[in-house]
Amino acid sequence: MEPTVDTAVETGAHQDPQAGTPVGAKAVADGGGGGGGGGAGRVAVVLGGASGIGRATAEVLAAHGYQVVVADRDGTLAAEVASGLGKPHESATADVTDEASVAGLFDGVHDRLGRLDAVVNSAGIGSLGLIADQSLEEFRAVVDVSLTGGFLVAKHAGRHLGRGGVLVSLSSLNARQPGVGLAAYCSAKAGLSMLTQVAALEFAERGIRVNAIAPGLVTTPLTAPAATIPGITEDYLANTPLGRAGTPEEIAQAALYLCSDAAAWITGEVLDINGGAHMLRYPNMLTHLARAFGDS
Ligand SMILES: NC(=O)c1ccc[n+]([C@@H]2O[C@H](COP(=O)([O-])OP(=O)(O)OC[C@H]3O[C@@H](n4cnc5c(N)ncnc54)[C@H](O)[C@@H]3O)[C@@H](O)[C@H]2O)c1
User: Fold this and answer.
1) Domain count of the chain?
2) Which residues are catalytic?
3) Which residues contact 19 (CB under 8 A, 6 or more apart)?
């Protein structure tokens, strides 16, 4: 899939090349380098930016001065999100499982906007099925988006991120906490967490930081279907010390922090944000499914 870019919105507002003022100096100049975000003059790409956590991240980065490219497999929804952000933000259609699409996205952003400072990869899909029953096709689809997609984004964003650049990926509580019926998702996210650390090692000498956020249950279109099955949410929250699900905005604030100069000494980190759920146990989703729908 070739990436398509919605250039209907103006893109020329922040075209100073990366060779100019050091990023940190620019952030201090706009008053945000100390943790307030510091995005003025910086370009951010948010993959999976059309929905849920990605959408909230695009909104938070834009609110803190970043020029945001909202990229998603669903280009129509991405364009709606970008248009809600207004100028100079823009959208692109891109599929993280397709190397030409990912390469074209980052080449295009760099060519047109002259720089790339931050990338947040929130693209992800879920699946639920016992190993004995799951098709190879479904297993591969989940691994393809979360793990292979993470590799392709690191590879091609890494070619354009300059010194001070940042990559943040969305891993999951399931990278460290196994769940029945979640072999594909858990394996893919565990791989993504390890990929994050390898990329952090490889990119460090170029001054690029690579981190991941591992959320627990966050209310988004991804989790809405499972939440309708009686017992799942209750069981999950009973194993969450803070007793509630997270919001997309809470994850977006962490992404903002990791992108900022306040996090300048953080790399190779997988940040758990889950109300403390990593200290307890993951619910058995299939028990609830069996109760709701029977064993068939
Ligand atoms: N919501 C949660 O509880 C939760 C918990 C832990 C981790 N996560 C992870 O956070 C990320 C965001 O999840 P969300 O809840 O916001 O989901 P979401 O479904 O609301 O958003 C995911 C976005 O990714 C896009 N996408 C899917 N496949 C893509 C592809 N191949 N290329 C480009 N874009 C693609 C979708 O179109 C969608 O816009 C995912 O990686 C997910 O696994 C979510």
Assistant:
1) 1
2) 185
3) none
